Amino acid sequence: MTTQTISTPEVYQGQFGDFTITKSDRTGVIIYRTGLMVAAVSFAIGSGLALFSPQPGAIQAITPLYTCFSLALGVSLLTIHIYMKLLHQILQLFWIIGSISAFIFGHFDNQPLAITIYNQPLTIFGIGFTFAALTGIFFKEGFCFHRLETKILTPLVPLLLLGHLTGILSTQAEQVLLGIWAILFLVFALRKTVQNIPDDIGDKSVFDYLENQRKAKV
């Protein structure tokens, strides 16, 4: 005869009361981190092709890699834990605008997406929203966990995009910044895999408090 031991969920002390972390919470964090890893790997491969193998076939391959990056980022934005619901929704809206822009540029231009973006900097006004959402994740992670790589990426991403948009950066400078971005993005995603899962869930009592406050105003 065998007996099954049912583990009691650990109770955490939050700012507005006790809370427990469910299996669903943990699954959400795993999905969030998986999305970041897929996005980081896709971005690194695409950047590597652009920097070290700028041949027609390689440039063509950047388009599906960008699609993979964007979709994975969208998944992470669905499952990320952010106390401010409005900020969460804004980041998701940015991703939607950027995704629609990339779809238009990728399907209504006879050139590969990477060439279109590089040769027509004004396209950053559309596709740049995706990277604004990514920068929001970097900012959130840097603010919450003080990770060096995210503190560097938070200003680096808009610097590269705005620098290309305005034409103030040389090609060599853009290549260096892109390489640093790709490397640090990978470092960030890899470090997330070994971080304690409850860290990404945060204080659930704050979420409950903010939700109750919102309902009280309705």
Uncertain ranges = 1-6
Overall, the morphology is elongated
Instruction: Supply the number of helical segments.
Output: 9
- Helical amount: over 70%
Q: Major β-sheet, in short?
A: 2 strands, antiparallel
Average pLDDT, rounded to a whole number, is 89
Strand proportion, as a percent range, falls in: under 5%
Instruction: Give the tally of β-strands.
Output: 2
Task: Identify the strand order in the major beta sheet.
Answer: 1-2
Secondary structure layout plus pairing:
Layout (H helix, E strand, L loop, with lengths): L10 E4 L2 E4 L2 H30 L3 H24 L5 H23 L5 H7 L4 H22 L2 H19 L4 H23 L3 H5 L2 H14 L1
Antiparallel strand pairs: 1-2
Walk me through what this model shows.
By secondary structure, the protein is mainly alpha-helical. It is 77% helix and 4% strand. The protein is built from nine helices and two strands. A two-stranded antiparallel sheet has the order 1-2. Helix 3 runs antiparallel to helix 5, helix 5 packs antiparallel against helix 6 (148-166) and helix 6 (148-166) packs antiparallel against helix 7 (171-193). The longest helix is centred in the N-terminal third of the chain and has 30 residues, at 23-52. The radius of gyration is 20 Å and the shape is elongated. Residues 1-6 have low confidence and may be disordered.
